[in-house]
Design brief:
Blueprint: E1 2-11, E2 14-20, E3 25-29, H1 36-48, E4 67-76, E5 79-88, E6 93-97, E7 100-102, H2 105-109, E8 114-117, H3 129-143, H4 145-168, H5 179-218, E9 225-230, H6 241-251, H7 253-259, E10 270-275, E11 278-279, H8 280-283, H9 286-308, E12 313-317, H10 325-334, E13 339-344, H11 349-354, E14 358-364, E15 367-373
Parallel strand pairs: 3-13, 3-14, 8-12, 12-13
Antiparallel strand pairs: 1-2, 1-4, 4-5, 5-6, 6-7, 9-10, 10-11, 14-15
Helix pairs in contact: 3-4, 4-5, 5-6, 5-9
The chain binds adenosine-5'-triphosphate and magnesium ion (MG).
């Protein structure tokens, strides 16, 4: 997959930009607050229909403007495609693929698969479970749009169930429950929850195998990584699996009622990381935790290649300087055939030298100029 070119209009600090990219390596250099991450964000938007940092899409529209536009020419499965996204200042979006309106995010998802690596990702092991869940949710959704659909269904019902549980708790301490309604919700949550856990288990196994191999290479065989999906649910992959989940949700109802929200389900699950059998969250050094984060990103690239038969696009936002030279080199070598976008305030000259055959761009106040091909 390749991003051939991009047009930005009133997107963040870009008033008007038209840029052709290098098919292999794009190094984007600029001082702070010039627009490096904004460009990465625009590419990411093309893949996911949402930003990785803006809570509300309205933030993406240039201050004082009515709307923003991001139009991207991409090539995937050997076909040229155009994704055109208009964002209004009220946050509403309109997405077209080759001029035709796209109504559901799932139709966008695997047109272009991107792997984003930013300094935030280096904290994934230490961060809250929520971060790790959104990581797997995003990755599986990109490669398995059907997953995105079940996830959406699950979240909808979960929201309704939580609202009901909350409304059952009266201010005088008394409670009144609509058991029939809760049965319906739990049954629907068991349907989609079962699918979610199945997808996540399968993905975690792939992730663990690939990331362990990478970690093994980086550490010269000293560090054995294992990743496990930890669920609070009684889960078995079998035709009865869904029934078992449903009855567990029902047995858990008292606890849900006491708490006033759904206390059990994939929305409470987590990923666990072990190095040489020890929990990396508790015992891993900062360096080891960073190496795991790097291994995860590189594993994502391998998994995308396996599942889609194509290399994804890699976006490295300001992350090279966070890695030591050995890890930078390792990364650069692992990604030979991937189209790459790297941003940096001060790129390391040695690493740039190893990224042979790329184009250097300079960003200044929402303008980008091509500096050189090298
Ligand atoms: N909606 C918006 N309209 C106009 N300008 C915006 C908008 N949102 C952000 N900006 C501007 O974009 C700039 C930040 O851009 P960006 O985050 O891409 O910087 P950067 O080059 O990645 O910097 P750093 O090296 O610090 O990460 C800031 O000057 C900010 O004021
Ligand atoms: Mg930035």
């Amino acid at each position: 997959m390749k991003i051939n070119s991009i047009i930005l209009e009133n997107f963040r600090n870009y008033r008007s930009l038209e840029l052709d990219f290098d098919a292999d390596r794009n190094i984007i250099v600029g001082e702070n607050a010039q627009g490096k991450t904004n460009l990465i964000e625009a590419i990411y938007l093309t893949a996911f229909a949402r930003s990785f940092r803006a809570v509300n899409s309205a933030e993406l529209v240039m201050f004082g403007k009515d709307s923003a536009r991001v139009s991207t020419d991409i090539k995937s499965e050997d076909i040229d495609k155009n994704i055109n996204i208009i964002i209004r200042s009220d946050g509403k979006k309109m997405i077209k693929k080759d001029g035709k309106l796209i109504r559901r995010t799932t139709e966008l998802l695997n047109n272009v698969v991107v792997v984003l690596f930013s300094p935030d990702d280096l904290r994934i092991i230490k961060d809250s479970p929520d971060r790790r869940r959104s990581f797997i949710n995003r990755e599986i959704s990109q490669m398995r749009p059907a997953y995105y659909e079940v996830l959406r269904r699950y979240s909808d019902v979960l929201r309704q169930k939580n609202a009901l549980l909350k409304s059952c708790m009266h201010s005088d301490g008394s409670r009144q429950y609509n058991d029939e309604m809760l049965d319906i919700f739990d049954s629907q949550l068991a349907d989609s929850g079962y699918e979610i856990i199945r997808f996540r288990r399968e993905f975690t196994e792939m992730l663990s195998a690939e990331a362990a191999d990478i970690m093994n290479n980086i550490s010269g065989g000293r560090e054995k990584l294992l990743i496990e999906y930890r669920t609070g649910c009684d889960f078995i992959t079998s035709p009865e699996g869904r029934e078992i989940l449903y009855s567990q949700f029902r047995h858990n109802r008292d606890r849900d009622m006491r708490n006033g929200y759904a206390t059990l389900g994939p929305h409470r699950d987590d990923l666990e990381f072990y190095i040489n059998g020890k929990d990396a969250k508790k015992y891993g050094s900062q360096g080891q935790q960073r190496t795991i984060a790097l291994s995860l990103k590189l594993a994502e690239i391998r998994i995308a290649r396996l599942l889609l038969d194509e290399s994804p696009v890699l976006l490295l936002d300001d992350v090279l300087s966070e890695l030591d030279l050995d890890r930078q080199r390792f990364l650069v070598n692992e990604i030979e055939d991937v189209q790459l976008f790297i941003t940096s305030a001060e790129p390391n000259a040695e690493v740039i030298k190893e990224l042979r055959g790329g184009t250097l761009f300079r960003v200044e106040e929402g303008n980008i100029t091509r500096v050189s091909k090298y």
